[in-house]
Amino acid sequence: MELLLLASAVWLGILTSVSPCPLATNIAAVSFISRRITQRNTVFLSGILYTLGRSLTYIVLGVLIVKTLVDVPILSDFLQRYVNKILGIVLILVGMVLLDLLRVPLSLPSVSENVAKKLIEKGAFGSLLLGILFALAFCPVSAALFFGGLIPLAVKAKSGIGLPLIYGIGTSLPVLLFASLVATGTSYINNLYHRITKVEFYTKKATGIIFILVGVYYALAYIFEII
Amino acid sequence: MDIKKLIKSLLFIFVVVSLAVLIYKEFSPRTESNAIPVAATKVDTVAVSGESLPAPENQPLKEPATATKQKEEAPSPHTAVKSQNSKLIAYYFHGTFRCTTCRTIEQYSHDAIQMYFAKELGNGRLEFRPVNIEEPENKHFIQDYQLVTRSLVLSLMSDGKETKSKNLADVWKLVRDKDKFFQYVKDEVEKFLKET
Fold first, then answer.
1. Which of B1, B4, B11 to mutate to test the interface with A (most CBs of A within 10 A)?
2. What is the share, in percent, of chain B residues with pLDDT greater than 90?
3. Does residue A158 surpass a pLDDT of 90?
């Protein structure tokens, strides 16, 4: 019984990530995670943090719903309505930072610009945030699977943490798999040509461009509502 | 270097315009909904979801009270005596942003109903009605039917009042299997039609 619940949670997660609707964010996630393409460990760490970020969002939502009986339709409507709108703008700005078109403005005196930039470039911290944000960006398919599929299971099993955690891992699995394939493949080619720094220069630019394109797509679809 | 600056400025302009549109749309929902007459909205939803929709156009999307009135305004030659007081409405609830899977679900629902229930559609016992829940006047549906996403809901109306409703949540599970999807919609609608 327990096993069946866990299996359904993973399966719902995988279904969520392979549906065409979050495709744009998945592309952005894959490119972000595999950005430090020559350092397989960093890619791996990024992937784990991205997964953690996603699970964290689902756990918070799960606990909110299971423990406090937050009104699910209102929550679902709110997230689908607003997060996607803000997401476009955020992605464009992050893409601009990655392309060095924009410097990270920081008012905190103790954290210098370099530290912040390093954190973003390292991808570690950034991947966690990205996971949290992308998980919040519900679209119709993921809302159906999470609010309509997983949450009823979680409520029945009184599991506000366990099932959402497993679901979160499920939603990241295909992204993780793809990112590691990209990293393995490219670092192999990379070793052949001994052009390590060059490759990283391009992957970072490519990630920036992908972020901007995905951001523009989201803005056109959700803010201007013309796609 | 110049190209870089140009791209930077263009992106900034895009971000600022997006923000402005976002804020404008958010804080002037009243003026927006007043500016667009309900009739126009309705025509729009009909246009998006296929021309062959039986739903009468140019009618306000209001719930129970208008349901009986609509039948009188759009009479069909076969209007049966029975359908004067009870009627089944198949709502398809969607948002402004239409995703691929959602379009498929709407298309399948529409086609299944059209295919199996042409007679009921013709005599007004059944109606397929796509509704955008992001329009302010339709927001109450979210609470009424506890909607978490795009949904197909059957609503049985009797004397202008809803007596029974069901959210066909399995449409999301069956969307990859057209035959099962059609069968599911057919079975559920039949169950409801028995009670009209």
1. B11
2. 17
3. no
For residue A220, what are its two tokens? Answer: 């056109």
CA of B178, closest CA in chain A: separation in Å?
17
Positive/negative CA dihedral, A192, A193, A195, A200: negative
Cα(A34)–Cα(A17) distance, integer angstroms: 17
What pLDDT is stored for residue B194 in this prediction? 82
Nearest CA among B37, B53, B167, B181 for reference residue B121 = B53
Rounded Cα distance, B9 and B27, in Å:
27
Query: Around Cβ B116, how many Cβ atoms within 10 Å?
Result: 18
What residues of A are in contact with residue B101 (Cβ under 8 Å)?
A: 19-21, 140-141
CA-nearest of A153, A145, A151, A148 to A171 is A145
Task: Answer whether B142's CB lies under 8 Å from B154's CB.
Answer: no
CB B184 within 8 A of CB B113: no
Q: At what angle do helices A72-98 and A124-136 cross, to 10 degrees?
A: 140
Q: Which of A88, A96, A147 sits opposite B149 (nearest CB)?
A: A147
Provide the whole-model pTM.
Answer: 0.73
Measured from the Cβ of residue B8, the count of other Cβ atoms closer than 10 Å reads: 15
Q: How many CB pairs under 8 A join A and B?
A: 88
* A51-90: pLDDT as tens digits: 999 999 999 999 988 887 778 888 888 888 888 889 999 9
ipTM computed for the complex: 0.75
pLDDT band at A178 (very low <50, low <70, confident <90, very high): confident
Q: How far B148 CA sits from the closest chain A CA (Å)?
A: 5
Distance CA A150, CA A164 (A): 8
